[in-house]
Sequence to fold (1162 residues):
Amino acid sequence: MDISPADGLLAASWLLIALPLAGAAVLLLGGRRTDRWGHLLGTATVVAAFVLALLCTLQLAGLEEGRRSAGVDLFTFISSGDLDVRAGLLFDPLSATFALLITGVGSLIHIYSIGYMAHDPGRRRFFAYLNLFVAAMLLLVLGNNFVALYVGWEGVGLASYLLIAFWYTRPAAATAAKKAFIMNRVGDVGLALAIFLLFAQLGTTSYAGVFGEVGTLAGGTVTAIGLLLLLGACGKSGQFPLQAWLPDAMEGPTPVSALIHAATMVTAGVYLIARSAPIYDQTETARTVVLAVGALTLLIGAIAGCAYDDIKKVLAYSTVSQIGYMFLAVGLGPAGYVAALAHLLAHGFFKAGLFLGAGSVMHAMNDSVDMRRFGGLWRKLPVTFGTFGLGYLALIGFPFLSGYWTKDAIVEATFDRGDWFGYALGGVAILAAGLTAFYMTRLMLMTFFGRPRWEEGVHPHEAPATMTVPMIVLAVGSVFSGALLVSVFPLSGWLEPVFGEPEEAEHVIAPLTIGAALFVVMLLGVAAAWVFVGRREVPLTAPVRVSPITRAARNALYADTVNESLFMRPGQWLTRALVFFDNRGVDGAVNGMAAALGGSSSRLGRAQTGFVRTYALGMLGGAVLVAGALLAVTAG
Amino acid sequence: MSDLPFLLLMIAVPAVGAAVVAGLPKGRDLLAKQISLGVSLVVLLLAVLATVAFDVGGDRFQLATSVTWIADFGVSFALGVDGIALVMLLLVGVLVPVVIGASWDDTPPQDRSMKAYFAWLLLLEAMMVGVFAATDVFLFYVFFEAMLVPMYFIIGSFGGPRRQYAAVKFFLYSLVGGLIMLAAVIGLYVVSNSQLGEGTFAFDALRQLEITPGVQKLLFLGFFVAFAIMAPLVPFHTWLPDSGSEAPIGGAVLLVGILDKVGTFGFLRYCLPLFPDASRYFAPYVLVLAVAGILYAALLAMGQSDMKRLVSYTSISHFGFIALGIFAFTTEAGTGAVLYMVNHGIATGLLFLVVGMLIARGGSRSIGDYGGVAAKAPLLAGFFLLAGLASLALPGTNSFVSEFLVLIGSFPSRPVFTIIATVGIILAALYILLMYQRTMHGPPRGGLMSEPREPVTGGHGATAVATAPSRTLRVTDLSRRELAVVTPLAALIIVLGVYPQPLLDLIEPSVQATMSDVGATGGTDR
Fold:
């Protein structure tokens, strides 16, 4: 990995992080004085960062291919002994891609939030946290070493915590935020240990140093590093077994769900694995585990998505599932990195758009999320319906919209493995595509079609322009990004300096066959939704007498139950036992000893009356002892 | 300028200040506060000047002053600092004025005067400076014992309802430790007498001794027990939750922020360099205590309902990290451990202060009596969160740097211990966020859930509430004075979190010297 010092605008790429960070600082420290214009400042810093990211990317693209890795060295962060961590950035095609996604979608969502949060008393705080998130996320993708990544990694975790708990007076929001942070921390332990292991083995944490020497490591060590990194990735990206926090995170305001819990932060795990490609290239075992995690999660997410009536939860499980596709792709190694990133970008557009649309629906329905009380909204919310509909088609892989291209590429690459494992994984991916079509069609039908089932006092109205314009922009992206990234301006060419030249894969199954299979499965999913949901009247409350499968899906396959009975309750029990032990056992032993020495336990309580005297006596005794001992020594 | 006897002045100024404050006529509380604050700021200034005068690449001990004290026994009043002691003096310099500011509006229990409280604080400051600056082992011992006295009175006279029990317990533990150490100090003297022909307590001379392994082990244990009680390592820890919860907030900050660090400082200054063979021999056992303590105390913190006890237990958990860093015997981990000592003083100091401010408002130390405070006091909640995040070592805060250094530095030499310790970062997130959620989040509450169980609950800060018992949780946001108290610490948390290198540069050479004393190669074992 050759990194050349950045010049021109690239040398100022640290401003990408500094701008939103300054915005957050001004809004948080400025207090109420900034209430009136704070949201505008917050939005302006992110838009400025987007423009800068665009210009930096253009400059990078103008360089010859071998030199598209610009390094910016800022200052010594932590240096002691053999450890030397620099505060340094790396602007290469991979980080540029993410920087554009983060600042681009970030700008749109900031603009949308101006409308969405217009009447919230905490608006300034909201924009401050959102700015903080953008800064941390940019640090995560722009850092040139694993420690900088870790700082950004936990930084986005903090922003996520603050934003999920934004309406902290609601106990559910507060609990969801805490759950998200804790489950992320479990993953973070993995990431931290991976960094420790890298330092112990290679004496460095910089990408250049690690990737240059990873080939010298023993196979078992590389596998351990790969698995530890994966644990971190699973926490941040809501992948099995750490997926249960993401749906709960929907307690946050909807723009947060769109930006953090759909388009950007939760894809950080994909970034981590893609960035660490030189490590995973060395370990087949770790990649196999990544594949298994991805396949399992994309199925879990798709199944759970079918059962929820909360519009945001359905979208959240859809996110879990779609990121599963991305994990599946990066697990394939060089054959899948580009496919994963293309899907990640397309998903960034359509899922952010879907969430913003959901926000618009909630806005119209007095903040209700219950799809059983929606219905018939296409007439009242035409722009929302149109943009949401395009996002929906893109997500289910309707031909020639973005999801069609990018999901296709992943499924093809999976089958191209050529072994039974590849077939099995590909089969799972196709099956889940059908489920995706089912749950999304169900969502569309329950929300926009059918008879209105609105609660009393609800008067749906279309959102203001600050909200609809970002939705329209994202809808355009949902339609065209896939085709652009896969065939017009192939992402594979742009990322070639990072992942190397794409190999022309040997297709074991003709791409046309796979495309046809996906199309048929999608139609089946849509049809099933029509049969089960669209044809009938939607009951206002969820049916209680349902099959065990439905019940399992409604409980997200019992992930929370497992966590609670395996960790939470034993943990609480252990804590209580230890508190008892510490008070009675450890302290009791000491108190008992003191009591025995003092004659009776009440003596300790009474001792303080004459305590100063006792102490003075003790000191005197000590001094005599010292003097005596010293005399004895010097005399002898 | 650089010829000034900084260290002597840093002891003399607060000691004289204490005498002046104590001698003020009754009723001059305001003057007492002003003098105390002024004196503590002078000490801070002296600490900063001393840092400027300190030459990072120079001798191991600098700014030295030495006066023969008891010539017959080779005792000198010898002061001097290495980088480790220097950063601790800086911490003393920062925390004392903050504590004085935080205690400004406290009301003392009946028949006690605030004047006395501030006098004890200043005397404590003088003793703490002495204990870090002493380069004569006997002098160190004297300061070690002497600093217990003002702390005893701070807890015992100005603390919460069970203050006397807590003070006596604190005293007995420390005294027992101190006496065992005294035996070891005398033992050292005996050895030096037989080897050098003339007994000495001078640290530099003692460091040159060739002590037989058996004697080393005994003397090591003598020092170790005293320090393990002071720093508290599990299972020597049970005095701290009582003292930390019953002490007035200012006393608690100094107790956990600085006094306890004398223990970990002692490991580094005395145990490792004087008894290198014994240190290596006992290291695995100490590491077991350290790592067990990290998890054990963190779990206990989760189980506390009393906020001050909770913070005390988190500190015991943190001391486990410091001990791990010291006994991993690498430069990175040792440097991290010293930085941890400073950072913990700042972060936990802030956490204690904010908890104290909350208790002063609600009149109860019990977490269950609060809820939804953030809605009424957003600034208080913000500082609470910042202190909590620093306590759970979030990157961007100072504590991350030290915890990261301890762990990454310990991993190459002690992977298993480090892996177990790393699990502690999950527990840290749990105990902090649980407390934060229960007190700050949720719907704002109009009143306390229950009556305060004791009329006086939160140190003397809460007595105002106790005199007018009320079920109303009158949560107001931070006052200007309170803001002035917490802002410097909050700023340090961020600044040292982003740019810790100047402190690391100060610490590292001394840690390296210590590690080469103990025969560790320093660095990784690649």
Q: What stands out?
A: Chain A touches chain B through 69 residues (CB under 8 Å). Residues 603-636 of chain A form one domain.
